[in-house]
Amino acid sequence: MSFKRFQSSDCSTSTPVKASVQRYLKSSLVESNPLLAPHIDSLIPKKPPLTAYKVTSFLTLYTLNSLPILFETRDGPVLPTLRFVHQYPTLFTSCRVDSGAIPFILGGANIMCPGLVNPGSELNEDYEIGQSVVVYAEGKEHALAVGHLKMGAKEIKEVNKGMGCEVAHFIGDGLFETKSIE
Amino acid sequence: MSCPAPLSIIYCSKCGVPPEYCPFGPDFQSHCMPALIREHPALAQQLYGTQEATDPKSDSDDPAPTASKTVSEETTNLEPWTPTERLTAFYNKYDPTKIPSIPTILTKYSGKEDALFTALTVKYGDEPLDPYLKVKYGIVEEDDEEVVSEGVSGLKLAQGLATKKVFTGKARGTSVKSVEKTCTRIVISKSKLQKKKWQTIVIGLETSPTIKLKEASQAFRKRFAGSSSVKDVAGRKEVIIQGDHVEECGRFIVEKFKVKKEEVWIDEDGEFVNVC
Ligand SMILES: [Zn+2]
Q1: Please, what's the b/e burial string for A140-177 (b: 16 or more CB within 10 A of its CB; e: otherwise)?
Q2: Within the 55-94 window of chain A, which residues sit less than 8 Å (CB to CB) from chain B?
């Protein structure tokens, strides 16, 4: 699953999000990004409701005033879009990859463990499997991807092999190019 | 707790990503970098350590007025020169006494700057090269083969049959285009020898493919009933005609040698007017 070839025309049907779903989206976002808690109601107010776009049977995109801000996959966490993250860079749970991983991520690859272990990278030891992360890069200011961990942070460091983080959305992909959906 | 204000992020106007990620894209050299330097010089400086562009508006504590600012060889101004800077650099090289009248000249030639520079290069010689273009196109000034690019149309015109090459750089995404064409540029001026004695000077005749210098000189001799000669001045050919025949000579060149009116200028004391 990724937005690599996503286009805004893939969003065929839009529906206003029910209040209960909106509450669930916000609470699950806060759960994985605790720093967001004090601000969530001003960032995503009760009204107007978010608009939901079903992209595929297992991927839903949410917009606020036509701007894509969140998305959710069937098996993954609720994730913020990168344009949303760039506006509030300090409020999301994050990790950092070493500079060698940047071209791979921008090419649409998932993050292999060494990218989160090598010198220059940062990964909080307390993160557990499934944790949603905003991915920063060594020597860069802005986040370049969002995704979720496929192993716990401790395991990633121990094993240092295979996929450590599944990337759902990265800079330059179809979702990133979609600044707004009317 | 109040919500933090959203940061406004600069995204590359060419490829759309935050500029720090542009180098990973295919169009970095050809599109992103020039755009970033133009639109966000401070960020370009921060990211790539390039020299900050000197914006005349921003350095207000600079006591030197813009018009008299000398553009030194070392200036790596990463914005293209404004017409003022371009003309200042030009007169700085050839005739600094003209520098004070630059604003007047540019007002007169507003919108026709290229014609002005073309005429100037024919009269004086090569334009000093804009450092921005040096950087942008990797132009080496001494290299006769590779110079001249968009915006510097007159650069090599004074050297014989000028070749105009348009360089679009070593682009990865775009194909490298190189356009060649010849440009005819003739400038006629006069100079005073003694009291009431003038000579008419024609330069750039060799830039027309239809004119042979000796034949032209002969034709002038016949037409103006006076002596006319071809002179080699600083590597350029000048045809000198005795007497003040500036305007007639212009018309004569257009009629006799089938040169377009737009390609012949008359230099009226530093001002260039097309033959009418
Ligand atoms: Zn770019």
Answers
A1: bebbbbbbbbbbbbeebeeeeeebbbbbbbbbbbbbbe
A2: 83, 86-91
- Full set of structural domains in chain A with CATH: 8-85 (3.10.400.20), 89-170 (3.10.400.20)
A39 at B interface, C-beta within 8 A:
yes
Neighbours of B7 (CB within 10 A): 12
Torsion of CA B87, B90, B94, B98, to 10 degrees: 10
Superfamily of domain B182-274 in CATH is SUI1-like domain (3.30.780.10)
What ipTM did this prediction achieve? 0.92
Q: Does A176 touch chain B (CB under 8 A)?
A: yes
Locate the domains of chain B by residue range.
Answer: 50-137, 182-274
**A69, A87 Cβ separation under 8 angstroms:** no
**Are the C-beta atoms of residues A93 and A143 closer than 8 Å to each other?**
no
How does pLDDT run across B75-134, given as a tens digit for each residue? Answer: 445 677 788 888 888 887 787 777 777 888 888 888 777 778 777 877 777 777 777 666
